[in-house]
Amino acid sequence: MERFVWASKGTPTVYDAVFPEVVSELLSDAGFEHPQEKYPEETLRCASLLGVLKLEEAVKRLNLSEDFLRDFERMSLIYALADHTKCLAFMLADGVVPSNAKEGYLARLGIRRAFRMKNALGIETPLEDIVISHIRRLRRTFPELEYAIDRISEMLALEKKRFEETLSRGAGIVKRIVAECEKRGAKKIPAETLIQLYDTHGLPPEFVKDVVEAHSKAVSGESGGGVQVKVEIPEDFYSQVAKMHSTERGGEEGEEGKGVESEEILRRRVSVLPKTAKLFYEKPTQKEFQARVLDAFDRFVVLDRTLFYPEGGGQPADTGVLIVSGRGKGAGAAAAATEVRVLDVQEVEGVVLHDVGEEASKFKVGDEVHGVVDWERRMALTRHHTATHIVLFAARKVLGEHIWQAGAQKGEKRSRIDVTHFKRISAEERRRIELLANEIVMRNLPVHASFVARNEAERKYGFRIYQGGVPDGAEIRIVSITDEEGVLDVQACAGTHCSRTGDVGCIKILSTRGIQDGIERIEFAAGIAAVEEMQSA
Q1: What is the DSSP letter of 275?
Q2: What is the edge-to-edge ordering of all strands in the sheet holding 486-492?
Q3: Hey, is 419 helix, strand or coil?
Q4: 437 contact partners, CB below 8 Å, separation of at least 6
Q5: What pTM did the predictor assign?
Q6: Rounded to an integer, what distance in angstroms lies between the CA atom of residue 409 and that of residue 371?
């Protein structure tokens, strides 16, 4: 689309066509004249070779001046800075928080490259002002960008401070590496070391090169010789780093995966069985049920239906008992019923597996069983799971729309939710989150849960429904909290929930802390557990 705009404008580059005002402002701030105006003929001749030759090779072949090369390189930086800052406007407005992991790392990568380019051009204008300049011009088409201006400004100011602190520590680290290279007689810092310096210490390769060159000049001036260590930056350096981080995989807090081999064995075993009817969705307030045994093997019993919730979405599995009727030998004979403890529950390919340990051998295919769920435990987990949705909503309202769930684990006595945020949560913010969460409880709002076609859910609610991850299937379970004005919180969620927020009871935030760069953990208790925490304080 932007290429059509370029073609219609007849400008030297696509950048001049798509964001001409920002390019013009950057040229003015840099005290720099557009090469197209300064060298109109040379620019056209050089442009005809770019894409075939590198800039330096094209300049050399056309016998153009060093001044032209320098100005052309500076103009490339102007364009790159304009492009980076536009990208940052959308990334940060969409809720990406700069950090050292996954998409947050890409944001930080872009921010720090923009800082480097701005400094190289001698531009004094704060980076946030350049980003806001884009937003002011894009707000008619993308009105949501304007709502994020304050948050973006704060994020970029913090990132500037962190980057400057990183660079102030970095010179000493680089000099130590140079000393090690000189000691070994190495003439070049390996690319792997450059990546490690960036990945571990946040030091851009251009900064490393500047420090090394300054050190080499100082050494040459003092001794007039010695090993001269050089830095050669790979052309795809940042692509290598970004690729390394974008392929990292994260999992839900507290969920331990089973070995690939054992999972595959279970899949093969249950592939011939029908999917289990999930009574915990159909009859969420029912505590006992009747079912028939479809299979029993190893530690597991498979039933045609169950009230036992299998572990998932950060919610532990239900526990309880299965009672199998006695099987007498001979006519009229009877035997005592056997009660077996359910230790864990897992789901594989839609089939629910009840882990009963070594007692699985007591079940036979076709047996009628009576199941009883540990209801006190179920309700404690249900309250905490519903409270997780409420706390996430409150955190988003207090801290900003960038808040995104980064992990969660529910418990009977306390739970935690990890959220993306660019600074520590203050005591005042914690107080406000807790107050708003309890206001939602006191309003006794309805909590709706239903299965909806994936496409319909995405069209209606957007991708925020995937706070807890992206579930499989054409249909997904949507859980929403609503009031008279509409939806307060909505997520794709498989867990058990209260029917109204008032059923959650009191919510007490126990602690907030940073667990990694860009991720804050909120620990809380709900219901009776919250009252117990307050009584013991």
Answers
A1: P
A2: 447-453, 475-483, 486-492
A3: strand
A4: 387, 390, 391, 393, 394, 507, 509, 524
A5: 0.78
A6: 26
CATH code: domain 379-536 is 3.30.980.10
pLDDT at 423 over 50: yes
Q: Coil, strand or helix: which one is 204?
A: coil
**263-373 and 379-536, same CATH topology:** no
User: For 413, which DSSP code?
Assistant: S
Question: Tokens representing 448?
Answer: 């709706």
Q: Using only the alpha carbons of the chain, give its radius of gyration.
A: 31
- Give the pLDDT score at 150: 94
Residue 367 token pair: 């047996």
Which residues are 416's β-sheet partners? Answer: 409, 523
Mean pLDDT on 343-350 = 95
- Residue corresponding to tokens 């060159």: 213
In whole angstroms, give the CA distance from residue 527 to residue 449: 21
Q: Would you kindly state where each structural domain of the chain is located, as residue ranges?
A: 10-147, 166-248, 263-373, 379-536
For tokens 């807890």, the residue is: 468
The topology (CATH level 3) of 263-373 is Elongation Factor Tu (Ef-tu); domain 3 (2.40.30)
* DSSP class per residue in 89-117: HHHHHTT----SSHHHHHHHHHHHHHHHH
